[in-house]
């Protein structure tokens, strides 16, 4: 098994993750993460050691998407870098679609993904500028 740099595999993964985010499917979101995992941003960082902790960290995301009337999320993959035999760093800009069909700019993140027998999982998320 090697780190996944295949754009189709990565696109499928982020499509699934985007659907889970906008639908508020907490078990599906949690299933996209490796344990332990970490989220890092300019003003905060946190780690989690259980799927329940991952799900809990996303409890507020779905209502936020609903308040902003965001109905779909698309990850535009900007860069893919193999890091090791099983790790890949992927730079993503999220683009959203609102309920009126308008594109809404999103945020940029770098994801460290681990390739498993079931596919990629997120080890670390870094919010970027």
Describe this protein's structure.
This protein is an alpha+beta fold. The chain has a single domain, classed as Nuclear Transport Factor 2, Chain: A. Helices cover 28% and strands 47% of the residues. It contains four helices and six strands; from the N terminus they run ααββααββββ. The N and C termini lie far apart (32 Å). The model has no long low-confidence stretch (mean pLDDT 90).
Strands, helices and their partners?
Blueprint lengths: L6 H17 L2 H5 L2 E8 L4 E4 L2 H7 L3 H7 L2 E13 L4 E12 L4 E14 L2 E10 L1
Parallel strand pairs: 1-6
Antiparallel strand pairs: 1-2, 3-4, 4-5, 5-6
Short summary of the structure?
The chain is an alpha+beta fold and 129 residues long. The protein contains four helices and six strands.
Number of domains: 1
- The CATH class label is Alpha Beta
- Proportion of residues in extended strands: over 45%
User: Which CATH architecture is right?
Assistant: Roll
Adjacency order of strands in the biggest sheet = 2-1-6-5-4-3
Shape: globular
Q: Helical percent range?
A: 25-40%
Give the number of helices: 4
Q: Would you tell me the overall average pLDDT?
A: 90
Along the chain, the helix and strand elements come as HHEEHHEEEE
Unreliable segments of 5+ consecutive residues: none
Organism: Micromonospora acroterricola
Protein name: SnoaL-like domain-containing protein
């Amino acid at each position: 098994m090697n780190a996944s740099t295949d754009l189709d595999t990565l696109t499928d993964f982020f499509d699934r993750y985007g659907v889970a985010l906008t639908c508020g499917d907490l078990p599906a979101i949690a299933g996209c993460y490796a344990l332990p995992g970490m989220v890092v941003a300019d003003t905060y960082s946190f780690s989690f050691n259980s799927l329940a902790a991952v799900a809990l960290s996303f409890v507020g995301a779905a209502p936020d998407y609903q308040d902003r009337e965001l109905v779909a999320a698309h990850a535009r993959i900007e860069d893919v870098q193999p890091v090791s035999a099983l790790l890949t760093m992927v730079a993503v800009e999220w683009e959203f679609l609102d309920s009126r069909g308008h594109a809404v700019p999103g945020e940029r993140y770098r994801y460290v993904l681990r390739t498993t027998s079931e596919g990629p999982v997120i080890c670390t998320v870094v919010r970027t500028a």
